[in-house]
Design a protein that fits this description.
The protein contains 10 helices and 18 strands. It is α/β, with parallel strands linked by helices and about 350 residues long. It has 2 domains: about 120 residues, 3-Layer(aba) Sandwich (Rossmann fold); about 190 residues, Dihydrodipicolinate Reductase, domain 2. The protein is globular and about 70 Å long. InterPro entries: Gfo/Idh/MocA-like_OxRdtase_N (IPR000683), GFO_IDH_MocA-like_dom (IPR055170), NAD(P)-bd_dom_sf (IPR036291).
Length: about 350
Amino acid sequence: MSENLVRFGILGCANIARKVSRAIRLSRNATLRAIGSRSIDKAARFAAENGFPASAKVYGSYEAVLEDADVDAVYVPLPTSLHVRWAVAAAERRKHLLLEKPVALNAAELDTILAACEANGVQYMDATMWMHHPRTARMRQFLDDPRLFGPLKSVHSIFCYNPGHEFLNNDIRVKPDLDALGALGDTGWYCIRAILWANDYQLPEKVTALREVKYNEAGVILSCAASLSWADGKISTFYCSFLTNLTMDITCAGTNGNLRLHDFVIPFQENLAHFYTTSESRFAELSLGVVPVPNEHAVTTELPQDALMVSEFARLAADIERNGAKPEKKWPTISRKTQLVVDAVRVSIERGFEPVEVGN
């Protein structure tokens, strides 16, 4: 590891890797060291088009990136069906692992990945960027305030977008051999993470998928929804889709207040994000309105959330390498809980929309 910077390698030239390579360049404690593709020409074009430094290595295979002794960490944006193979290979070569979501096809695969990371003492994190925006911490403060919000009762989340004909016919996220979870694994991952986040990562007791799931001709989910329930009476719902106009909402309802935001996945503006809160709401005289009017909170950030994600991951990796620290277990724990709920939704769909208990 260089004195000040964690050196990243990237496996593959997925479109999302363009965003993350920019995030690595923006981060103050990380640098781009290598890019690998099955085609060296494709890797070279990617490096040239995405601002890689002249010192970065360009490889015609994923293995070459993992074998590079100057690579400290890897970002893996490959199709989900390839994650377990290449994530384990990275961990076994002591590369810290930033893994694109959905992280695995099921919890058993993820357990294999996490076991390899633990055995080799490397940091694991999934690339759920909104978790690292300072807005998220600010919202957490409101949810944890018993006077302003009170006990959580319900969370509702939506993430959907309509990418068009070309995507729905050719993108890897609609191919059963590449990303068999479809919209559930892509947009549904965010919804489920939001619900778990609001519930302070307490797993639901049961999950029930809702009817009217939409599939493509290959049997991949294009749209679905589910309800989640807890033993203490809390309930949540989510809707995810590749067939509906862009929507990115979270609504959290407590006994004393509520929280709403409309751009939780990617803020409408990169360096400015809003959320809305109300407490002790009531109808105005003659029900001619509601008082108090919701409070609008604006949160600014110098670095965008993707760069903040890279910076936090690099900080953890550097602490391991330089100070002998242990990998932070928060991120694999959160990732695994998200995967368990994804699995439960899929099983409920397969069982004819029966309630399914969430595993451990």
